[in-house]
Every structure is written in structure tokens, then in C-alpha cells.
Amino acid sequence: MARSEGSSSNLNEKSSRTLRCSLAGLLLSLGCLISQPCLARPEPAPLSWEQLDSQQREVLERYEDEWDDFSPQRQQRLARGAQRWSRMSSEEREQAEKKFERFKTMPDEEKRELRRYAERFNEMSPDQRDALRDRWREFRNLPPQQRDLLRERFHAWRELPGPQRQPLMDCMNRRLGGAGEDCSRLLPPARSPGNRR
After folding, report:
1. Region entry Disordered: which residue ranges (predicted)?
2. What are phi and psi of 154, to 5 degrees?
3. I need a surface site. Which of 27, 106, 120, 171 has the fewest CB within 10 A?
């Protein structure tokens, strides 16, 4: 019997860890996919074209003529994006382009949801973002079958009505705040293969 309890405890610990990794990965991906400014941040100052470094200007060349017409927020976002783009390897650039193409084909409601997730990511403290990135790395290091199962469970959760989804969100918020709570118990089982979209 002790062996069964140990196995159950170990399974619950693994499920909790994989759930955290999966949700953390999702939030991190969304934050990277669509960088929206946090509403609580102060209004940034306009950024002149001359303030950009040569690599940023090269990446943003097509916007030079209309640069001064952009809002300061858009200028800052584009400048940060150009800086990130300049530092990416060719493989990372290819992945970013694929993600952007996927985003462009998403329904508007999914785009809005991604933007909300990105806002939440941008509102996190640096420590919370680092914790989320660490969990994403853990998720990426899981065996493919385990990642797929977590994705399926997450998709099943996303299909629940809002009130049924809220307890998991509350739990994840507490975890990001440092609570040692097991949120995996709130995630529904994966859909059967016949019920997948």
C-alpha cells in the first residue's frame, strides 16, 4: 500500500509540475508572440528615427517615412522588436515568422485572447516572468507524449465555460505569487481522440 501512495504522490507532483510548465509555456509564448504595452505603464516619449541604432533602422526601413506618425507606444514596440530580431538566429527568425503567420490566420476572438494573455505577462514582475520562463523551459524538456497530453488537457480546459475556467486561473495566480498549491487537480482530462478538433 505504501508503494501505491508513493506512486500516487509522485504522479500528482508530476501532473502539477507539467501543468505549471504547460500554462507557463503558453503565457510565455503569448507574451513573445504579441507584445502589447501594459496599461499601467507611463506614456513613453516619442522615439525619433535618428535615435534608433543602425540595425534597428535596417529592420524597420520600410517604416522610415511614416515613423513620426506612429504613436510613441508603437515606436517603442517596433524598436524593441527590431532589437530582438537583430539578435535572433536564422532558426529563431524562421520560428517567429511561422508564429506570426499562424497568428494572422487566427479568428479575431483568439487574437483578442492572446493579447489579454500578453497584457498579463507584461504586468508581471520580473521575478514572475523569470519563473514563467523557467517553467516553460521545463515544459519544453518534457517527453513529447507528456507535452501533448498537457496540451490536450489545456485545450479541454479552454473549452469550458468561463465560470468553470476561473478556479484554475485563480490557482495559477496564487502559484505565481509563491503559493505551493497543486493546480493540476483543476485541469480536465484530455479529450478522447474522437472528440478532438
Report:
1. 82-101, 175-197
2. -65, -45
3. 106
Predicted TM-score (pTM) of this structure: 0.46
In tens, the pLDDT along 15-54 reads 555 555 555 555 545 444 444 444 445 677 899 999 999 9
The Cα 167–Cα 177 span in angstroms is 15
Which DSSP string corresponds to 50-116? Answer: GGS-HHHHHHTGGGGGGGGGS-HHHHHHHHHHHHHHHH--HHHHHHHHHHHHHHHHS-HHHHHHHHH
DSSP string of 127-179, one letter each residue: HHHHHHHHHHHHHHTS-HHHHHHHHHHHHHHHTS-HHHHHHHHHHHHHHHTT-
Burial code (b: 16+ CB inside 10 Å, e: under 16) for 126-153 equals: eebbebbbebbebbeebeeeebebbebb
> What does the alpha-carbon distance between residue 166 and residue 186 come to, in Å, rounded to a whole number?
10
Q: Which of 91-105, 111-125, 131-145, 177-191 has the lowest mean pLDDT?
A: 177-191
How far apart, in whole angstroms, are the C-alpha atoms of residue 133 and residue 130? 5
Measured distance CA(131)–CA(177) in Å, rounded: 10
